[in-house]
């Protein structure tokens, strides 16, 4: 049986109306009815509810179309906030965004490196609390925290299904534990999926677009958004572009696959290639025993931008490999846009953008059907953290409320921890999505 | 602005109810209400409409749960029919299916080879008319024809965006022209997408599954189905798995990409490899100048099944290459099932199934999150044609009725021809989906 459609649910209606107001910035009730296909009385009721909750406010009058000028509505951006936390080995970012998706506070710091989760999560919580205090954000107005990191994940249980960077992380309940420390709801999601949806919410992406995001930090991930919603697949472990094979005869990767993109194009691979290039390591002061691939990669990228031929060759080679994978996701998902996000694109964006665009233009299967644009993320290095915060806003305000009480806006998410102890054995369960 | 949701539309309700009855085979009104989330009066009204139109009939009584045993409902399979036509160079299949998706007539014949469309379409129409006459199907009950073929396509205009097999095919309005000859609506779609949705409609796929179909005839295509609907992307040119690169350093393909899967694993590639294997060509009587790769490939597959070591090596090698691409689509779409469909899998199914399953189990990124099964299509060689017919049923009966009159079941689709003359220039337009 298909999942029950909740036709005409009052809460779903509120979500649709709220998202239309958000997307339009200012809009009248008449325009809301026209855009949504809902009747004027239904719109009026939903708007009244949203105004009572303080989520929507009136914003003057629009242009008259003959009669009385219509009252315009807009979000009340200070009504709610959410926090985005990017968990990464080499660079962490935390942001607070308001209901309109605008960043109101931000901090970044060196990543959690080889810390076990028992140490890393209190460390992250200290930063979150510090940022909330510094920004003087009322905690009662914080919907929750979007914790974003690499995959594979069990998103519903809020844990990572990988022993990266240390064995303790595998199967550790990161989201429930962070929720416990912070005393607020925490949802776990994929960093690249977060970056992708963040682009939609705060960026300039056409809402009808089917677009992809390639996210490059220490690793390479991907996300696809279809009509404003993240493509999830059967367990929210989709678009793992860093671990698709670009060479069927390539070397085995620790992930189990062979010839993985990440081992050709990712920061660690480029650093390794630089160490193998005579003279370049000395010239750029690269550490053969280093593990902070993000900084070392940034030095190579900076040298490429400054005209160093060897460095430029390596970055261009990385871009061509990424171009190959970009063509693959474009031909598979039939994308009309690719967004490049994350710190490793941020340092050499124009080289990557130019060469990936060339590959996509030349090699995508359906290039005669429509053009495919390659653009940098509007959020650059912060894209994943901003997206994590946006995912909280989106899931709380517009979709996924099937289990909430009709007509009530849930300000608190059920703690993810409760699902952890009832999981069936790993090899038998399927993760419903 | 997002597309208008048509909340509570009477027609959409009918579609939901009809699809629930189809999926359940027999179901009571009470069970329909429970499954759909719709109120009992809404269900009663929708069922009354469907019975008036002859689409649904009563089918005795179910088991009592205390009170009066409930009346069961089922589809009236003879109420409507649709036709599926698979257009292929080396093998064409035409099927007629009833409302329940059951095949009521079938014919197959050698493909359209190098015929130009001006010759191929009347040829196909003659076969369609002959099959309808032979099966004595009332044309007033035929919803339309699903014409399925390879991509890229402009699905809305009903034309192919490829000069395969001859230049005349590029941009030729195949669907409008066939509609004109047959005097009935014709929709064009991708053969692999059709095969995928056909599996859902008539097969044993879990409706919540996110699954992929790899379709191998002369070429290799793919389709993904999410919760019972084909994943479309921005222009319905998605999942072109035959033209993703499995070797970034591989040879250029006529499609513009390099290292394409089809050139390693497809029937023509296997035939070429067999011709290069000393002695094998003579042994299997392969024609070095032949173009009917399907039959030649079938001879190699038969030899592999019969224990010929050289032939088996080639089929296994093809299966490993396909396994690499299967891992790619699984890690990108996060699939829980892969269906192998089409004539070229039908001749060596167990070798392909075993080896692709091995690769997926070993190399898929999220294999710790859930298992991924690889299975043969229930429709085998006919999967695309059956799927073409099913797509007509699905689009006419359950979804995509936003423009139809509320409460009216459209028995005739708007001719696809009307959109052809109003297209904007190829390089400027985007195809809405």
From TrEMBL, chains A, B:
Residues 414-433 are annotated as: Disordered. The lineage of its organism: Bacteria, Bacillati, Actinomycetota, Actinomycetes, Micromonosporales. This is ROK family transcriptional regulator. It comes from Actinoplanes aureus. Belongs to the ROK (NagC/XylR) family. InterPro entries: ATPase_NBD, ROK, WH-like_DNA-bd_sf, WH_DNA-bd_sf. It comes from the Bacteria. Residues 424-433 have a biased composition (Basic and acidic residues).
């Amino acid at each position: 049986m298909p999942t029950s459609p909740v036709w005409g649910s009052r809460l779903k209606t509120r979500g649709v109306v709220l998202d239309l107001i958000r997307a339009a910035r200012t809009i009248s009730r008449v325009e809301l009815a026209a855009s949504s296909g809902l009747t004027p009385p239904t719109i009026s009721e939903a708007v009244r509810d949203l105004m009572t909750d303080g989520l929507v406010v009136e914003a003057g009058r629009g242009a008259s179309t003959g009669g009385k000028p219509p009252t315009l509505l807009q979000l009340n951006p200070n009504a709610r906030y959410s926090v985005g936390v990017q968990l990464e080995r080499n660079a962490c970012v935390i942001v607070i965004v308001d209901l309109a998706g605008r960043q109101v506070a931000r901090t970044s710091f060196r990543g959690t490196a080889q810390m076990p989760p028992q140490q890393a999560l209190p460390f992250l919580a200290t930063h979150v609390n510090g940022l909330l205090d510094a920004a003087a954000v009322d905690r009662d107005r914080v919907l929750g925290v979007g914790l974003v990191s690499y995959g594979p994940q069990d998103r519903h249980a809020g844990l990572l299904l990988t022993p990266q960077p240390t064995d303790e992380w595998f199967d550790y309940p990161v989201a429930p534990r962070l929720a416990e420390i912070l005393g607020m709801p925490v949802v776990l999601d994929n960093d690249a999926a977060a970056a992708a949806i963040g682009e939609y919410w705060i960026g300039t992406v056409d809402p009808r677009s089917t677009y992809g995001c390639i996210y490059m930090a220490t690793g390479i991930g991907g996300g696809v958004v279809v009509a404003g919603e993240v493509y999830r697949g059967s367990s929210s472990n989709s678009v793992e572009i860093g671990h698709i094979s670009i060479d069927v005869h390539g070397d085995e990767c620790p992930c189990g696959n062979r010839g993985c993109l990440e081992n050709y194009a990712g920061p660690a691979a480029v650093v390794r290639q630089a160490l193998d290039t005579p003279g370049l390591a000395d010239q750029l002061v690269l550490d053969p025993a280093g593990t902070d691939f993000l900084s070392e990669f940034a030095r190579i990228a900076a040298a490429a931008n400054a005209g160093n031929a060897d460095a430029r060759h390596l970055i261009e080679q990385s871009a061509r490999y990424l171009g190959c994978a970009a063509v693959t996701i474009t031909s598979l998902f039939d994308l009309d846009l690719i967004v490049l996000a994350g710190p490793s694109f941020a340092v050499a964006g124009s080289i990557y953008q130019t060469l990936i665009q060339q590959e996509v233009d030349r090699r995508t299967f359906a290039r005669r059907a429509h053009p495919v644009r390659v653009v940098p993320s509007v959020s650059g290095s912060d894209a994943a953290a901003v997206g994590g915060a946006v995912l909280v806003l989106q899931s709380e305000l517009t979709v996924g409320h099937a289990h909430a009480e009709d007509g009530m806006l849930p300000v608190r998410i059920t703690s993810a921890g409760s699902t952890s102890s009832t999981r069936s054995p790993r090899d038998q369960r399927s993760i419903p999505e």
